[in-house]
Amino acid sequence: MKLVPNPLVVFVGGLLFTAAVQAAEPIQPVRPVQDVNLAQVELGKKLYFDPRLSRSGFISCNSCHNLSMGGTDNLKTSIGHNWQQGPINAPTVLNSSLNVAQFWDGRARDLKEQAGGPIENPKEMAFSHTLTVDVLRSIPEYAIEFRQVFGAGEITIDEVTEAIAEFEKTLVTPNGRFDRWLLGEEKAITADEKAGYELFKTSGCVACHNGEAVGGTSFQKMGVVEPYQTSNPAEGRIAVTGKDADRFSFKVPTLRNVELTYPYFHDGEAATLTDAVDLMGRLQLGRTYTPEENAQIVAFLKTLTGDQPRFELPVLPPSRDDTPPPRPFD
After folding, report:
1. Which residues are catalytic?
2. Do domains 38-169 and 177-302 have the same CATH topology?
3. Which of 47, 62, 126 lies closest to 92, judged by CA?
4. Domain 177-302: which CATH class?
5. Model confidence over 151-194: pLDDT tens digits?
């Protein structure tokens, strides 16, 4: 399904804008969702919100990636099974289809591979792929919908993760004020916000935070000019590559909707955007921003908030007598 045949033609506030994206700018507008399988999206939406994919019957994908809260949980680290403290800050699911890879260390190549990880992680949903499939097979409405979407055959974890990933592809957030400015609406941002963008560019922030997602497309060392001090044990990309050069190298986060996705960094130690801008300036760029400069950059970052996903919450089919029961206290 191709919803927008021409990414340079957009509707903003009921008005039609036709404009070439400013070629010299390092940031490009978020495009509305392009090609998706609608049947998989609808099934994936149910699975995304279904807590029965967890051992406790209480935790769903939406628990840590809450679509009412910028696609995250606004906690330093997430709460997992039996109130276990998660090891790392939950990145936003919004615009995650634009990432070069998934997770802070990039261990999942794509959204489909990522979707299966939390289900069987003992500190997150604490289930297994086998038990997840058993639960879904025991619910006739799910069994029918899987056959309608994927054809005849038993439900598989591959189909489960494919459907969730297809739903997550729809979670893009176009039409931010900065995007409208890029597309020619001069009054979409204020003078202070524009000054913040100029600082963002001239300081060098755009070396890592660029493109459609304003990040998410590279791995960079945390603490270039000064070492980053943290008690969080995560060491970043080295966990995937085994190369010492990748120690403390993390995926650059998207800055889309960043005003909604606090606290910041892989350990969640920066509580506010002001804190994050100050730390990034000093640690990554060797620059100490004045309070006015910091405020201008923060003002610019808030223009990156786009239209949030809006849809009717799915009604989940009920469990049956033979559905494996949840085990919230085991």
Report:
1. 124
2. yes
3. 62
4. mainly alpha
5. 988 999 999 999 999 999 999 999 999 999 999 999 999 999 99
